[in-house]
Amino acid sequence: MIEVVYYYNTSNQWIIDFAAVFSKQVGASVSFKNNKLTFPPSVANGRFEYYELNENLGVLCVDIVFMDDILLHKKELSGNDYYALIFDVSDEPIKVIQSKDGTVRTIGSLVKSVMLGSHAFNSAVTFQKNARIRYVQFSAHRSWGMKNIVEPIPVEFTRFKEFANAQPMSIMANFDTKSYELVNEVLEMDTTRTNFVQLLDGYASQLIALFFNNLKEEFADKKNAVSPDAMRIVQLKEIQEQNLSESLTLPKAAAACLMSPTKFAILFQSLFGKTYGAYFMHKKMEKAKELLDKGFTVADTGVQVGYNNTGYFARIFKKHFGVMPRAYKNTNS
Fold it and tell me: Beta partners for 2?
């Protein structure tokens, strides 16, 4: 069996790295050029192609036969910035191994399931030799989801709190007939067409929409759904985490999310387990400690996390960690 450890994101770099690792494992050149992965005939025959639709969304099209058993083991990463949605139409369903407990879950084919998982979810897939492997995988950055998935989604199925807190997640939905037809159309399209990527983008929109529509239909009798308000809060939270020097007050944050301060405060705490103020205080202090470890001065560190008054920053830091920032810096330098 050939075992390949890989990761994925939405740029071409992941599949370039994938080709390099695969080459090393088989002892022969596996190259990536013009969106296509080329294998030696002794290794595989067929399509293994990746297309960047935009900077936050990409699609992998696979219709291939491997000459040996293949184990693709996804790296266990932190952050959960990327998510993959897999539509498998192989004759024999792909086996997905969840490494956490060693159990095997099967996905794919018309009567099986569509699988959505984050890139930090620890799993592997196996491809049997001489079996025809056919699937389409969409990879998206979480920012793409927050911008484009605006309809309410059943929280029981999506485990939205896991998404909101960037925790590993994996969920499944039924594979409907329309999706099955669209996936086969994608795999049979002429890749030499000048508008091929634009057509792929259109298929991506249809298939992703169908997936989430199926979720809503499966859980139509459930009342707990993810609201647009919740998605706006998650988006604002992640934007502010990238710019801790300019945090919004709770009233301004609530206004930015188009809701009252009371509603915002209640929903924020329900999603993240802390009040708005406590959550960002913790983020600022963790960032401050990181900056001090990197050699920033106490004054510069304070400014970076939103405190122009160095004395006030020092008191907040001590209250949080039990030590003044200068003493912490001297101890850890």
Answer: 70
Average pLDDT over residues 303-311: 92
Distances (CA, A) of 54 to 144, 152, 201: 10, 24, 9
For the structural domain made of 225-276, what CATH number should be given?
1.10.10
- Domain 225-276 and domain 279-332, same fold? Reply is yes
The H or E element that residue 23 is part of is helix 13-26
Interval 7-20: pLDDT, tens: 899 999 999 999 99
Residue 116: CB atoms within 10 Å: 23
279-332 maps to CATH 1.10.10.60 = yes
User: Contact at 8 Å (CB) between 16 and 37?
Assistant: no
H-only helix segments in 196-275: 196-218, 228-241, 250-256, 261-272
Instruction: Please state, as a whole number, how many other Cβ atoms lie within 10 Å of the Cβ of residue 180.
Output: 17
In this structure, are residues 142 and 83 in contact, taking their beta carbons and an 8 Å threshold?
A: yes
Rounded CA separation 90/85 (Å): 15
Beta-ladder partners of 118: 83
From residue 140, how far is each of 85, 206, 234, 260 by CA, in Å? 8, 15, 16, 31
Contact call for residues 73 and 96 (beta carbons, < 8 A): no
pLDDT of 78 reads 67
